[in-house]
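Researcher: I'm preparing a figure for a lab meeting and need a structural model of a single chain. I don't have an experimental structure, so a prediction will have to do for now. The sequence is pasted below. Please return the structure as tokens so I can convert it later.
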Amino acid sequence: MLALLQDMWSWVAGALTILLAVIASSHAVVYKRDDRAALGWVGVIWLVPVAGPVLYVLFGINRIRRRAILMRADTAQFMTGEFPASRDEKLLDRLLGEDNRHIAQLSRLVDSVARRAITYNNSVVSLRNGEEAYPEMLASINRAEKSIGLSTFIFDNDVTGRKFCEALAGAVHRGVAVRVLIDAVGSRYSWPSIIRELKRAKVPVARFAPTLLPWRLPYMNLRNHRKILVVDGRDGYAGGMNIRDRHVLADRPRSPVRDVHFRINGPVVAHLSTAFAEDWVFSTKEELAGPTWFAEPESAGNVAARGLTDGPDEDFEKLRWTMLGALACAQKTVRIVTPYFLPDSALITALDVAAMRGVSVEIVLPEKNNQILVQWASNARLWQLVNRGCEIYMSPAPFDHSKIMVVDGVWSLIGSANWDPRSLRLNFEFNLECYSSPLAATLDSFVDRKIAESRHYTWVDVATRSWAVRMRDGVARLMSPYL
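Model: Understood. Here is the structure written out token by token.
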């Protein structure tokens, strides 16, 4: 009898194992958009019985789905659709100049990708490191009269974080509507969490996508990586800078991080407000609408700009398509600064093709990355670029977290996204595409200074790597889709 029960249990366990594998692999085949990701997960599911389907359920399924944002009828006028942001071919051509008319093709491509109109008469000012960015941001918070929306990945409970906490608390005390959104993983980079201090100061705060997984797990996906501050619907800040002491280099922090942020004014600030409002309603179900949060646009400069939201939901691969379009349109120069560089084969091919067409392609990466697996995986790719004429530069310490792309001295892409799968496929990001020769010139000078202090990475560096190093980097490269 016991033997019969054991046989039955074996059959039942086998049948359940096969059923789980069929269900999980069917889900991967139907819902995974990337062929290689689907094939990889199917392999894991069938080659690792029971554990494979469990791993897929835990890490392979995108559970983030934006809830439909039901705004009141009077809200639409404060969203971007009602603002005078319609496409003006003649205005864009005048802004670009005769030598850069070809970049207008990129604007038309992003029209269809972003499904959001380009805006004109904006001002975009670069702010280097915390020394320049934080005082400007705190001053705007202290001037706020109606509303403050702040979204960030990391908000440390340190000297810098407490300054922001104090300023936000002061705004609440003045009667300003304040909302702070911090990624659930990023909120735990310091302990105790700044959320406790914000709540104690009666600042309305929420966590994006709370998780029970280890807070120090470095490759968490589906995170809100956006850095957005909007004050009174008019003053906007965006870029790659978190809120933490490490960005204030003048204070000589233990692990300094260089970065660049941007002060933004003009009609495009509505794109920042919209992105924040969508994330807030997703996290809290509270709708932010009306003139408190969306101000009437005002002319502030001569930059044409558009906000680009990117994420594993309806915004999937908007930035990737924009990058590919920019590389295809480039005729003179492509300049890229990024801390994490793990481009897929299509982006590598586009960079190589641009270089082979005679475009000067320059890429600045950190000499020493703060994510060692990312550095190894990145090193495994660089030969493909060096071999085709791309110029690679390794910037010295402190670690450079800046994220910039400049094309032909007129088009710029700035914001929170890196050149890696996490930013372009797995996390929520916010970037701005900008059409402006003066802004591009400022960023080109910024890149020039970085290149001047950097080490030129050449084919000699590629060829002299030992077999053990190449093997190490190659194994790390296999993990790239998950880094």
